[in-house]
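Subject: design request, 68 residues
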């Protein structure tokens, strides 16, 4: 399944702000919880460029594959 990168980062932002649980994030991204943990880890360490206020800095026009 492919989701727009913006959708994924908005979902991750909601998760980061504790507006979504891990289970809710997994359901939203149509993935199991272990895959979601890996996605969160990968994106938080490789693609998250934080500004001073802790906001996500990202390009919005790309898509990315998830999971299987």
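Subject: RE: design request

Done. Sequence follows.
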């Amino acid at each position: 399944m492919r989701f727009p990168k913006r959708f994924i980062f908005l979902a991750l932002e909601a998760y980061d702000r504790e507006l979504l649980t891990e289970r809710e994030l997994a359901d939203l991204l149509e993935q199991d919880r272990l895959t979601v943990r890996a996605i969160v880890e990968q994106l938080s360490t490789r693609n998250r460029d934080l500004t001073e206020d802790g906001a996500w800095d990202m390009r919005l026009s790309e898509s990315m594959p998830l999971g299987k």
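The first helix runs from residue 5 to 16.
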